[in-house]
Amino acid sequence: MPANQNTVSAVRAYRLLRVVIHLLYAALVAACIYPFVGPATRGRRLQRWSAGLLQILAVRLCVSGVPPAGGAVLVVGNHVSWLDIFAINAIHPARFVAKAEVRRWPLIGWLCARGGTLFIDRARRHHTRDINAVMAKAMQGGEAFAVFPEGTTTHGDVVLPFHPSLLQPALDCSALIYPVALRYSRVDGSLCSEADYEGEKSLVQSLAQLVTQQRVDLDLHFLPPIACAGMHRRALADEAAALIAARLGLAAPSKRAETVRHPTA
Domain range spanning residue 44? Predict the structure, then answer.
């Protein structure tokens, strides 16, 4: 890592302190203000808070393409970092779908729940189907959702095949699917491994690595929306993944055969 990209210890400590204060402020707002305001106000507050977090961490957000204008939309993106959520929220606030383990994270899990995140317990049979039903109903009411169909994070140097199951709610309510491509880079243009959340990194380790960078450039590109009418969710998943990979200059992922579950007696 080039030495001129590293931040001195005092700057790192200051950034981490500001992150803690920013999280505590979010907890105060979620507990004392959120119960008394509507979804639009919550969305604006979440948008400002997310942008503020990126600013504290010296993440420069570079947005291209046309973000969703509102209404029933499903944003789907490649998944590199826990920062992906806040990057999308800084541009277009949305409810997210996360694995159940996130709900158990101290403070952050509670904040996610207060922000409307839905948590999938993959150990519970048919839980994805139940979550899809909740998503479809909320999207019919005009709420936006965002998912990361790869099902895991990467270093940002590959796009994995998209799982199609979480795209079903968009089909159920004829929503638009907005693919979004995310890339984290250092000031020299190379991929920023300090920003990714791949492998065995803990959230604390990821954050500690992130603050070593003087600046991280996050390119967030919204691709043209995909209309769901008349399409199968597997085809939607393959098309969204291929479009994102092409935008990032990466190979399209191999198409995944969708598993068919037969009812048991």
Answer: 3-248
